Structures are given as structure tokens and as C-alpha cells.
Amino acid sequence: MCGIAGFISPTLKQEHLHLITRALQHRGPDAEGFYFDAAAHVGLGHRRLSIIDLSEAANQPFYSQDGRYIMIYNGEMYNFKELAAKYHIQPRTSSDSEIILEAFAKKGIECVNDFNGMFALAIWDKKEEELFLLRDRFGVKPIVYYHKGTDFVFASELKALLKLPVEKKINLDALQDYFFLEYIPDAKCILDNFYKLPKGHYLTVKKGMVSVRPYYRFTDKITPRPLALRKENEVLDEFEDLLGSAVKYRQISDVPIGAFLSGGTDSSLICALFQKQNTNPVNTFTIGFDIAGYDESSYASQVAHILKTNHSETHLSGKSSLSFVDNLVNHFDEPFAVPSTIPSYLVCNVARKNVTVAMSGDGGDELFMGYGYYNVYRKIKRLFRMDAGLGRYMIKAVFNTMGNRYTRAARLFDLPSADLMAHLWSEQQYMFSEKEIGSLLNLSETHLSIKDSWRKIDCLKLSDFEKISLFDIEQYLAYNLLYKMDIASMANSLEVRNPYLDYRVMEYCFNMPQELKVKDGTQKYLMKKLLERYLPNKLVYRKKWGFPAPVGDWLSKELAYLIDKWLDPGHIKLQGLFNEKRVSYYVNEFRSGKKYHDKRLWSMIIFQMWHSKYMEGNGN
Question: What is the predicted pLDDT for the residue at 193?
């Protein structure tokens, strides 16, 4: 795992290349390398975290054997040995980087269809003077770029690009999405003229022309198979073999490797297969909270004991999180209001003290319909179809008299019938409604891109649950979970691998009959049936917890100072982005006991911290 950066620009010099590349040192502390051609106005920079082939021969930039192509690469190609055989490549090193570049030299962009891995890479074609950027199918590894006029600059992280003397202007459409979703989706970035290369896409730059094209669309792989044609035990065996293959692939490493273990279904299944394939105990890691209702570390310990892993457990208190919270935006360089960034960063920090690579369970919930709002959506949708509005009004009025929990639930009955799923998702994350965003940002009209994404999915001939699963894969997984884990892990120079995101697993499992994902009210049914082979039922079928952080408790106690510091009415008014009366309203409501406003406050605080550092230049 590494950091990459580069440009095609007549205005940028070699010192700019060094500047943006060294801003990514945390992603690659082991080596750095550069390619610069002043005549072609091109520069490529690389920071290396050595995982496979630790020798200097595998340092980058990497040059093709014919000398035509130069590559910088972030990621891992798990099937590189099979690729070498298929493309008849005689390697000079044992590095996957060399195989990728030689495959490209032989077949061009089409070779990406044979790749099984996570990657963000750039290849410069010296002969044609053309730059290629490629990103993996599901967006595990990031590429952010800036394009304005004759300047094209890219990097693994936004913070590297912000080292350059470029204009920084808030993208108001992206800001609306942020307050609705807790993250910024799709190709958008918080700043104008900055973009993310979408998952499953490649980009070319030639003679000043930038073109972005897809090479992989997950929706093209949807071919549902009816249950009548498949026996459950057959599918279960196939699933175990396929997921086991993905886990086996992700053990390719010349450095120590471990796995995250929360005690939930997703991570427990990965750890079970991981341990099954190894004679010695594998390393597993978990984070616990010293707040009742948020700590599931005891379950992780039970799972580790049964699987006989070498388990490390770290407990987190509100007080111990203070120093990291103040530095959140040093790592998460785009506004990102997900409280689990804190435990994610800390579990990566703990793991890195013992291993350089860790496996994660990301993707299991999205594939196997594991989230609670699936059933909420079905119930709300049914109610909205049956009721013209009066019933909803009455339910809301009653709920508003029954205490905070029901007052917050009453908000569900304010959701608009159009684009119901998009609005429900926002509400389930405790974020702002579309109407509230308009008031907060003083906008007469709002535009939320997520509604367009949902409409495209809603038109497909799929069940409601399948549509939500696809929505989660295309949006939440790609632009929330994977961004979070990439930044949290790379901040600690840790590589994280995701067996569920093997494209073979993703395609196979999504096309599985829905009855094998949700059965008799049990979500993630087939995963749990497989986990029964490794763990007792009391652990397999326990209540789902997730990986939250008690941000409401923290903002009421140890982190209360963040409200005073970042949501000060005077500063809000001077800044001019927000309606200061609306900000004060949410602060007062929260402090009067309405804790369900915690994410709204948190999202504003995170934005203010980000704005101070990157727009006002007040960061370290």
C-alpha cells in the first residue's frame, strides 16, 4: 500500500512534485521515488509501504521492460502470479507492480478486466504522451484530482493537492450532500475544480483533454438466480469455498498480517476462515468502549477464544479520544461526519504495532442486507401507500408527546413520499433533512445528488431489499466505509484488505436468491448458516451492534468544549456560511436534552474544523 501523486502541467515544477508526494509520507514510509520530464510537463511521485517484494528492485516509479511506460501504483494485485502466466510475462522481480505494468504494455487498458485486487494507479505512455489513471472496481483505493485550464494534478489524498497554490472555493452542492449523508458522494469533492475518480473508471489525459470512462459497472453483473434452481447446502458450500479463496488471496504478504474482529457476523466469519487456513494463531484486534450500550469487545473475546486467535483488545474512553478528535481533520481531509472514524483510526493504530496488513469485514452488511432500515423502509413505504397524510400526522402528534426516543422517531412521518429511501437513509443517520439543509445554508433551492442515484436504482427490476442492497454497495460502501478505512489505516501506515470485496464474491453473492439473505426475519441468513460451522448459535444469532462511537455522550461530557469552540455564534456569523440562528437552535435543543441532534452538531463541528485548517490556514 502506498501513496501516489503526479501532474501534467506547464506551470508546475519538480519541487511541486516533491511537495505533493511528501504530503503522503504516512501512506508510504519505506521509500520514495520520482519521475519528472520537463519537456512533457509531466511528473510522477510515489511513497512506498513495502508489502510484497521488500527489495529496492520493487521501488517505484516502475518502468516497463520496453521502456515505454512508467507506473506509480497504490494497492495489491492478489492474482498477479496468474496474470504473469496468462500474459507470458518473465518478471525481473517478485513484485505485483511489475506484472501490472507488463500486462498493460501487452494489452493496454483492457488488461484491467483480468485484475483481482484493490488499486489506484497512474501510467505514463512516453510514446503517445498520454496519462492513464485507473481505480479498482469498488473504490477501495482513492484517487483525487484537480483540473482547471492546463493544470491536471492527482494524488491519493486531497490534502496533498491542497499543498499547491490553487484556488479553493466551497462546492455548495457537495456541502448539501455532506449535511444530508454525512459524507460527499460520487465524483464530487468539497471544493470546486476538484474531483474523485469514480470506482470502476479510468481517466486519460492527452493533449490537454481529460476523459473519464467506466470499465466496470456492477449493475451489468446483476443476473438473479431463482431459489428453485439452487439447493441451500450447495450454495452454502460454494459460498464458503469462494470466500475462503478471497481470504487466501489476501494473505499474500512478505510482512506480518492480522484481522479486525468486532465479534459480529462479518468480521467473525473472515477470522474463522483466516484461522482455518493457518496452523499458528492469527492476530486479531478489537476496540471497546467504556460506555454501556456501545461495548461489544466481550463478544470479540469470546469469538477469539473459540477460534484460538492471538487477540488484542483496547478500551476507549471519552477522555482518551480527546487528542485524536482535535486532529481528525489532519487525516480526514474532506468533511466527513462519521463518528466511527475514531474507533477505526484507533483499531488501526493498535494493529499497526503488531502487523503491517489487516483484514476487514467491510462489505458483508451491504451484500447480505444486514442493516435495520431495510425493514423500516418496507413499513414506512407501506404506510405511505395506505395513508394520504392524516394517519401520519396523528402518529407524529402522539409520538411527540412520548419522550425523546419517540420524538426523534416522529421525524420519520415528515419524510416526503418521493425519493423515500434517500430521505430515510439520511434520517437513520440522524443527519439534516432536505428542508433543514435549506434553512441551515440559507438556500432557496436545494439539490441532493443522492436522489438521482436512488431513482436510477429504483427503476431496476429488483425487489425493494435488493434495491437497498445495491444502493448501499454503490453509495454507502464506496464513498463512506471505504474512504473511512483507507484514511484511518493509511494514517497509521497499515494496509487493510477486504475479502468480501473480491469481485467474484460480490457478483456471486448479490445474485444469490434473496431468500438466502433474509429468511424468517433473519438478516444475513446464509452468512450466519456458514458461521454456525465455526461458532455456537448464541454468538452467531446475537443482536447486531455495528461499530459506532458514542458521540452524543461525548458531546455532553468530555467533548462539550467542541460545541463552544466551533459553533460559537460570533464565529458562525462572521464566517457567513450558515444561518447562525439555526445553528444556535440545534445547540440549544441538544443541551436541553434532545440528544438525537448529536449528529447534526457533530457534522457542523467537523466541517468547522475542516474549514479552519484547509480554508483559513489555521492547521498545523
Answer: 97
